Amino acid sequence: MKKILLAVILILSLGIKSWGQCTPTWPTGGGHGIIPDSATNLPHAIEGMPYNANIQFFTPLDTMYLGTIPVTIDNVTITGVTGLSVIPNISPFTYVPNPATGVFPGGSLGCISLTGTPSIGSVGTYFLTVAVTANAHITGSSQALTQPYTIGYYKIVVDQNTSVPSISTSKFDLSQNFPNPFNYKTNISFNMPAKGYAALKVFDLIGNVLFEKYIDAKVGINTINYDASELAEGVYFYSISTSSGNLTRRLIIDRK
């Protein structure tokens, strides 16, 4: 039983990712298991870009305990995921199971989705730990069997976005916003050599301040998702002011 239950749990651990609520599908003749498998691992993410993936799984209905005792799998339940919050993000990484309860009955087809947008400068490898509980009973009896597991060898690799403007990580620096030009939303990234407060200002060509936001900035790269919905098309400037100085760049709103 342990071997089969572990396989079912791997289904869940891979299922920790995707985009919105996924739709369960499974290839004909594919048997039980997960798509993708542990060898394929999770798809890579790209800094500054929304991450999405659909992980499909098919939970076995029964198995053999100790090689001779028939066991019915009641369900496998996801109880927690750690590692997602460690990924520097513009929008946080979260997972959504389908069924939404996170309880996956034996013999069922399902999936889990994960969404998030890694920050500019978040290039690296981030390992996930998935905690699940497999619930079963000996077939033909009411004797319950419960086995918790944690799976820690899945990872999300964030790759460099070659279209993203560079930014120094060794000094106070402000990147060109990305994308630029943009329609309504753009990412503004700046590097902080020390923790402290920073002020973002957006102003027009004659210096009128149109937007201002104060940030309790962390050491390293900070990314702000700026929404310019209230501004008209045109050319503007933005600045970041800190105790280390003030830097200014130009942004362009183009809704054509």
Structural class: mainly beta
Q: Which geometry do the CA atoms define? A: elongated
How many DSSP-defined strands? Answer: 17
Radius of gyration: 23 Å
| Beta content | over 45%
- The averaged pLDDT comes out at 84
Number of domains: 2
Helix content: under 10%
Distance between the termini: 60 Å
- H-E order: HEEEEEEEEEEEEEEEEE
Low-pLDDT stretches: 1-19
The biggest sheet, with number of strands, parallel, antiparallel or mixed sense and barrel status, is: 6 strands, mixed
Query: What assembly state would you assign to the polypeptide chains in this entry?
Result: single chain
Total number of helices: 1
Key words describing this protein structure:
mainly beta; 256 residues; disordered N terminus; 1 helix; 17 strands; six-stranded mixed β-sheet; 2 domains; 5% helix; Immunoglobulin-like
Description:
The protein is mainly beta and 256 residues long. It has two domains: 2-159; 173-253, Sandwich (Immunoglobulin-like), CATH 2.60.40.1930. It is built from one helix and 17 strands. The strands form four sheets. Strands 2, 4, 5, 7, 9 and 10 form a six-stranded mixed β-sheet that branches. The chain has a four-stranded antiparallel β-sheet with strand order 1-3-8-6. A four-stranded antiparallel β-sheet has the order 14-13-16-17, with no helix packed on it. A hairpin with a 2-residue loop joins strand 16 (234-242) and strand 17. The termini are far apart. The model is unreliable at 1-19 (pLDDT under 50).
